[in-house]
Prior knowledge:
Elements: H1 5-33, H2 39-52, H3 58-61
Helix pairs in contact: 1-2
Protein name: DUF2842 domain-containing protein
InterPro entries: DUF2842
Pfam family, one: DUF2842
Amino acid sequence: MALSYKARKRLSLLILLVGMPIYVVIAVNLIDSIDRLPIWAEVPAYIVLGVAWILPFRSVFLGIGQVDPDAPVERPVDRQE
């Protein structure tokens, strides 16, 4: 089932405002729970976790910054003077 542009926009906002902060807390706690992880291994782990959250949601975020494709096209009014 394909989501409409408006539904994808609302879902992406929900993911960014609610889901991402929750994911950040989980990711930091996950890295923190691994004992004796050297600093040189933490940086790639944070990079991988920073990219991994978006992979399941790439279809939701695709094209959100563009103009609504379902919106009616407004044409300029020709004025005669």
